[in-house]
Amino acid sequence: MSDKAENWKEAISNELSQLKENNTWTEVDQIPDGKEVISSKWVLKKKADCYKARNNSLPPMSQFLQALRFYATGCHQLTMGDFCGVSRSTANRVIHKVTAAIACLSKDFIKFPQDAEEIRTTQLDFHRIARFPKVIGALDCTHIKIISPGGEHAETFRNRKGYMSINTQVICNANLIITDIVARWPGSAHDERIFSSCRRNAMFEIGHYTDSVLVADSGYMNRSYIMMPLDRIITTEESL
């Protein structure tokens, strides 16, 4: 028996567990009528840890594409590693390395209108869509699904839909480009609480954006600089 036999058994066990978690199949006690059993076999291959084997390191583009696949599919790191032919530890390092590099670029690409010219340009872009004046952003939150972080405060990440998440606040412009983002609140946090505590709200409160407004849904408190949908349309002006 190979000296790596226990490692192979563990790898197979992990693979089976993930297949069950993803509902790849349904276990049955006997073969249903009219169905046939499809034979299969395991192909086991030892993958190099590319971060330890420096002479076999991954090219930057390969690392970037692996991270993009992880973002797009939300698959387990082990599954991503299997698909890309690297070990789980390498997949983990690649994801963290690329994510950190992208995050460092956020200030160059995620920019909220600041001066009078930028504010006016953004307002005009929104006005062209629905003749709504003074708007410089559309505000809302979205839940980014995560695996339970564990610990005594893990349940604070469980949102009202029943799964663990980061409740992420996003403001975008008329071209659907993100101009502001807050991604540090657990899933149980309410949208209004997140906005009340953020820097962008403080800037509106001190009048930095003059008479500009944000459009949002009814999950936010009514403010002079937040416009929410009207329950009833009465006047001609309200029926823009």
From TrEMBL:
It comes from the Eukaryota. Its cofactor is a divalent metal cation. The keyword Nuclease applies. Residues 139-231 form the DDE Tnp4 domain. Keywords: Cytoplasm, Hydrolase, Metal-binding, Nuclease, Nucleus. One of its GO terms (cellular component) is nucleus. The keyword Hydrolase applies. Signal peptide: none annotated. GO terms for molecular function: hydrolase activity; metal ion binding; nuclease activity. InterPro entries: HARBI1-like, HARBI1_animal, HARBI1_dom. It is found in: Cytoplasm; Nucleus. This is Putative nuclease HARBI1. It comes from Bicyclus anynana (Squinting bush brown butterfly).
